[in-house]
Amino acid sequence: MTWLVVTFKMVHVAALMVWCAGLVLLPLALSLHTATPNQQRFNRVRLLTHVAYTQIVTPAAVIAVGAGLLLLFLLGVFEPWFGAKLLAVSLLVVCHAWAGHQVSQIAERRGCYEGAFGVRAALGNVAVMIGILVLVLWKPEIPEEVMPDWLRSPYGARLWVDDPS
Q1: What is the pLDDT of residue 38?
Q2: What transmembrane ranges does the database entry give (predicted)?
Q3: Which pLDDT tens digit goes with each residue over 35-61?
């Protein structure tokens, strides 16, 4: 491996650790918010979740995905298991967007927001993360026939990269 690949792998793994930790902790922090007339508690939870989401978790997600895409092209990993991994990562991005929606709901629904699904959401996020980790470490042999034709070939065009096989 070249120093470039090693560097991007380190960046990717470090950003993933921050992103995944944030996706576990954010739902738990959101569940701390209950309908209360205590303005100070409301401000503290709102500030904690807003800063964590916008200034820590989201930048880590962008860096993790960006470094992962660079690694995809540096290492040339064009295999069916990787498509499954990208699908699972897309699900993690949906979990991330849902967490952001919940963070915004605290500000928009002051006094009537109930912390949504706290532990269940965190466990769901962990399940997706474990699924991604299993795919990455196991690299299962997925027959190409499982994938639909529209995923295996460009529409009437030539791939801009050589055949990876």
Answers
A1: 75
A2: 12-30, 51-75, 81-99, 119-138
A3: 666 778 778 888 999 999 999 999 999
The two structure tokens encoding residue 3:
């120093």
What sign results for the dihedral spanned by CA atoms 90, 95, 99, 102? positive
Query: Which residues have CB under 8 Å from 44's CB, separation 6+?
Result: none
Helix, strand, coil shares, percent, the chain, to 5: 75, 0, 25
Cα–chain center distance at 34: 26
CA 40 to chain centre: 31
Q: d(Cα 24, Cα 129) in Å, to the nearest integer? A: 10
- 20 contact partners, CB below 8 Å, separation of at least 6: 125, 129
Amino acid at 94: V
pTM exceeds 0.90: no
Question: pLDDT (tens digit, 9 = 90+) per residue, 93-147?
Answer: 999 999 999 888 877 766 556 665 788 999 999 999 999 999 999 999 988 788 7
